[in-house]
Amino acid sequence: MSQRASSRSASDRRVGSVAAGGAAAGVVAWLLGYAVTFLAAGDQVEQSLADLNSIVGFVGGSEVPTWKAISWLYLNAHMAVIRVTGLPGGSRSYDIIAESDSANAPLLYVLPPLAILLVTVAVVAIAGARDVVSGAVGGAAVVVGYFLVTGVVALLSAHSFGGSVTVAVALVPALLLAGFAYPLVCGSVGGALVGLVRS
After folding, report:
1. Which of 161, 177, 148 is nearest to 64 (CA)?
2. Residues 150/178, Cβ–Cβ less than 8 Å
3. 163-168: average pLDDT
4. Where is each DUF7978 domain found (predicted)?
């Protein structure tokens, strides 16, 4: 009886340790995906912004910083749309990647799941998952960090050109898709695979 309790206690501690690692992995995975997006598309985004910002600056508006545009692009890679409000005729939604002329743009859709899987597998393995359950729980814990960063970036990257015209990621889809669905599915699958291999 005591051996069974001791075994269950050790298993609970392992799950807790793996889950804590998973939460930290969410932050790392988000930053990794963002960094790769910046490296892959930063030059093209800066060139596109140069024309836009010259017009915006000419009329006295607030220019868009590159980091905000990359944030929109990375969140858009999670299927979260970008919404422009304050325009004549009402608000409009854009899927930057789908509407891009670049043949390589659709590859950005692969980035979020890949970043989550890679980081989750590494962290869950280091945290010591020894079975499918602890691996899946640790992997699913990626949601905590990923959701937090998604919410903060979605809010901070909102941009006002001046007057009533603003550009921002649609917050609810961003939180549901980028912050919750992607890390939950990819993280739990990655973690479960680590646990399965090590069981």
Report:
1. 161
2. yes
3. 84
4. 1-197
Retrieve residue 28's tokens: 């790392």
| pLDDT > 70? residue 11 | no
Within its chain, how far is the Cα of 79 from the centroid? Answer: 11
Residue 103's pLDDT is what?
Answer: 75
Determine contact, residues 101/195, Cβ cutoff 8 Å: no
CA-to-CA distance for 103 and 35, rounded, in angstroms?
Answer: 21
| Tens digit of each residue's pLDDT (9 = 90 or more) over 57-70 | 655 677 889 999 99
Instruction: Report d(CA 119, CA 171) in Å as an integer.
Output: 25
What is the reported pTM?
0.86
**Diameter of the chain measured on Cα atoms:** 77
Cα–Cα distances in Å, from 93 out to 20, 96, 111? 37, 9, 22
